[in-house]
């Protein structure tokens, strides 16, 4: 990964975490070193310009919730966990 891409990715992650107050937006678990968060790409980053590294495409999720959100991407949109469909995640971050 190039230095520039690492910088873009890091800025994306930090912006998402800050907006979400360093908490999982689904279960409200707070970020700690033992309970890290991930900045999940709501819309698959391969479908977006510049890899989807924009604040409006990110949501802070703990490991357990991130696995649930990834099911949609792993099944090409054929399956998802209730509450974790991209449309639902977008509504959550956009109020």
Give a description of the structure.
The protein has one domain (3-94). It is 40% helix and 11% strand. The chain contains 3 helices and 2 strands; from the N terminus they run H-E-E-H-H. The chain has helices at residues 3-19, 63-74, 86-94, and strands at 37-41, 58-62. The longest helix is centred in the N-terminal third of the chain and has 17 residues, at 3-19. The termini are far apart.
State the distance separating the first and last CA atoms: 34 Å
Number of helical segments? 3
Biggest beta-sheet profile: 2 strands, antiparallel
Helical/strand content category: alpha+beta
Question: What string, H for helix and E for strand, traces the elements in order?
Answer: HEEHH
The residue ranges in which pLDDT falls below 50 over 5 or more consecutive positions are none
User: Strand content of the residues, in percent?
Assistant: 5-15%
Mean pLDDT: 93
Spatial ordering of strands, largest sheet:
1-2
Please tally the β strands and state the result. 2
Query: Roughly how much helix do the residues carry, as a percent range?
Result: 40-55%
